[in-house]
Amino acid sequence: MSFSLEQLASQVTEWCARHGVVPANGQVAADTTVRTLRYYRTLGLLDAAVEGGGSGYTQHHYLQAASVRVLQSQGLPLTRIQSLLFGRSDEELQGILDTVEGGGGQLPEAENSKWVQPETWQTWPVSPEFLLISRRPGLTLTADQLEAIRLIIQA
Question: pTM for this one?
Fold first, then answer.
């Protein structure tokens, strides 16, 4: 199934109206518009269309946009929503919608989030072309470990 951006906005608006999902923040419009979806796209809340021509939006995009609206209805800011939704599968996104639809789904929890702001990143240069990056606090790598990684990259 493929949607245009207009159709996607309409589908999300209809779903929200049917389930009484209204953003908690009074500054956020109740309807999902094309402009809203474009804004979500710039913030990384909505993946890029899978094809050009204005009709490359899929069920995954629908689940992403509707999940954003559900989390907004819980009063979460978009920056927090982005960290909670980043990299979620269709099944996980459907679980968020299920919390509203009565299907026993679950809202993502902070400890399950793969990316929570603010972050501290550690970096190790491995070669002139590669940099190893970790968000694990206190992680140390020995010279032998870095050499082993460098050898793997060269292979």
Answer: 0.67
Domain assignment present for 72: yes
Q: Quote the CA–CA distance of 11 and 89 in Å, as a whole number.
A: 20
For residue 110 the two structure tokens come to: 């902070």
| Whether 32 and 104 share a structural domain | yes
Note down the domain range covering 19: 5-112
> What does residue 49 show for φ and ψ, rounded to 5 degrees?
-60, 145
Band of pLDDT at residue 115, cut at 50, 70 and 90: very low
Nearest one of 72, 63, 74 to 11, comparing CA atoms: 63
pLDDT in tens, 43-73: 999 998 887 766 789 999 999 999 999 999 8
Q: Phi/psi at 133 (nearest 5 deg)? A: -125, 135
132 and 77 fall within a common domain: no
**Sign (positive/negative) of CA torsion 64, 94, 116, 79?**
positive
